[in-house]
Write a structure and sequence with these properties.
This protein is mostly helical. The protein has helices spanning 22-44, 57-61, 63-68. The radius of gyration is 26 Å and the shape is elongated. Keywords: Membrane, Transmembrane, Transmembrane helix.
Amino acid sequence: MAQPAVPSTQVQQPTVPLRVPVREILPWAVFAAVLGLVLLYFIGAEQGATSVFSGTWVHEFTHDGRHLLGFPCH
C-alpha cells in the first residue's frame, strides 16, 4: 500500500512514565544484594582465619579479581 506524500497531522498524546510496583522489584533487589555480598566475601575475605573452605582453591580462583579490586592477599 502506498504511503501519502504528506504525513498526517495527528497530535500525539504525551507519554506517561511506566510505574513498576516496589513489590515486584524488592525480591530481585534482595537477591542481587545477597549475591553481591557473597561475591564480595569470596573475592575479599575467603582466606586465612575467616576461611570457610579448607585449601587454597578459592583463593587461587579469585586471585586476579582480588588484585583488580584492590584487596591485598600476600
